[in-house]
Structure formats: C-alpha cells, structure tokens
Amino acid sequence: MQAWLSLARKELRLSRALALGGLAVLIVAGFFGAYLAYRYHSGVELAFAAIAIMAHIWYIPIYMLDSLSKEWRHTAHLWLQLPHSGWSLLVAKLVSGIVWMLASFIITSLFTLWFVAVENLPSHLQLPWAEIWRYGGMAALMIFVSGLYMGFWAMLISVSMASGKRFLKKGRWLIGLAVFLIATWGLGAFYHTEIHDFITHWGLFHITITPPADNMNTMFHAPFQIPLYAGELFFNLFIAAAVFYLSGWLLDKKVEV
Questions:
Q1: Cβ–Cβ contacts within 10 Å for residue 17, how many?
Q2: Around Cβ 100, how many Cβ atoms within 10 Å?
Q3: b/e per residue, 175-208, with b = 16+ CB within 10 A?
Q4: Complete DSSP assignment for 171-201
Q5: In sequence order, what are the residues at sequence separation of 6 or more whose Cβ sits closer than 8 angstroms to the Cβ of residue 93?
Q6: What HEC string does 1-17 produce?
Q7: 244/153 Cα distance (integer angstroms)
Q8: Are 88 and 251 in contact (CB under 8 A)?
Q9: In this structure, are residues 203 and 178 in contact, taking their beta carbons and an 8 Å threshold?
C-alpha cells in the first residue's frame, strides 16, 4: 500500500504544474466574474460559470488521455517496469485526475455561489439556498459520475492503441476509433433494444424536481418527476467495471515497451 501511495503522489507531482496553472487562471477569471456581478448585475458571469461547471464532465477523460499519451511518448519503458499491476498504475493516474478535478470544481462552484448571492435575479429564477444546495449536489454527482465513466473509456482507448503497437506500425488510431464507436454508437444502439430494457428496467424510482415558484404563471412551474431504474445504474456500473478491468489486463498482458 505504501508503494502505491508513493506512486499516486508521484502522479500528483507530475501533473501539479499544469493543474495549478489551470487553477490560477480559474481564480483570476472568477474574480473578474465577481467584478462584473458587482458592477453590472447582468448575469452574464452566471452563464459562463454554468458552462464552466458543466465542462468539468470532460476533465477526467481529457486528463487520462493526456497523462497516458505522455507515458507512451516519454516514459513507457520506466512506467511499465514498475512493480505494480496495470490496474494499480491506472488507478494512481485516475486518483490524481480526480483530485485536480475536484479542486477545480470546488473553486468554480464557490465562485458561482458568490455570483448568485450578488446578482439580483428575477423572482421566477430565485431559489432558496436549501434548494440550491440540493440541486447543486445532484448536478455535481451527475458530473462526477459521468466524467468518471467517460474517463474509463478514455483509458481503454489509450491503452488499446498502445497495445496495437505489437502488430500495427501505423494506423493505431483506428483501434482507438473502434473503441470510441463501441462506447458511443454501439452502446447507444443497444440501449434502444428490448434486450436492454429486459435487463435494466427494474427497480423504478423517481427524482422530484420543483421549479422556482412564479405567482404569475404556475402552469409551467409544477413539480415533475424524472424516472430512473436501479437496473440501469447497475448495468452502467458493470460496463464501467468491465472497461476498467480490460484496460488493466491489456496494460499487463499486451502493451509492449
């Protein structure tokens, strides 16, 4: 365990300069947004803040692709010789990406809450702070889980391309494209089949969403429910676990220096 912790700390150090630079830019942009909020009350900074928050869904997949790409180009001969399994090596990178993503997400969210407190929003857009925390927490969980899921696929794309080195001198990007199509078009097509419905449509539950109240127009502000199936959650968890397992297996068995 101590050896793996040392590996995880190494990953954090290697990515520290770029990550801290991004956080510095984010903080400068946040204070500029606060200036706009105090000075103009136009709400434009809230729009950019919302985009920045949602963009974090891509943080982990981009981080994994970039980190693994650097290993293949510069240090694969050292990295692959470490006394760790492929899964341990990948988890160390994943943990590093999660740490930096959470730091960026927390800073962005704090600035966004600051903007909300400063802006004079119309009454139909105002929410009690309890509701802001509730919906914000739901959005944060969705972004984190979705980003982690895509990070697993990004991991598999990169490792699959590296494993193709043993039998393809050129065109390894076709392997990555094939994995990408499986993750998008392939699973998307499967989601619309009766087999998928049979496997996943069990354990129905609902998430209730209550829009902000508007005394002038209550018709479009009634609570509504989003249906979810526990089966779909377990199915996606199984896919994520399978993708991660395959990535580690390929790294151990098929990737050559």
A1: 9
A2: 21
A3: bbeebbeebeeeeeeeeeeeebeeebeeeeeeee
A4: -THHHHHHHHHIIIIIHHHHTTSHHHHHHH-
A5: 11, 63, 64, 67, 68
A6: CHHHHHHHHHHHHHCHH
A7: 8
A8: no
A9: no
Domains of the chain, by residue range, sit at 2-253
Tens digit of pLDDT per residue, the chain (257 long)? 777 888 899 899 999 999 999 999 999 999 999 999 998 888 899 999 999 999 999 999 999 999 999 999 888 888 888 888 899 999 999 999 999 999 999 999 999 999 988 887 665 566 677 778 888 898 999 999 999 999 999 999 999 999 988 777 788 889 999 999 999 999 999 999 999 999 999 998 887 776 665 544 544 556 767 888 999 999 999 999 999 999 999 999 888 66
How far is 194 from 196, CA to CA, in rounded Å?
5
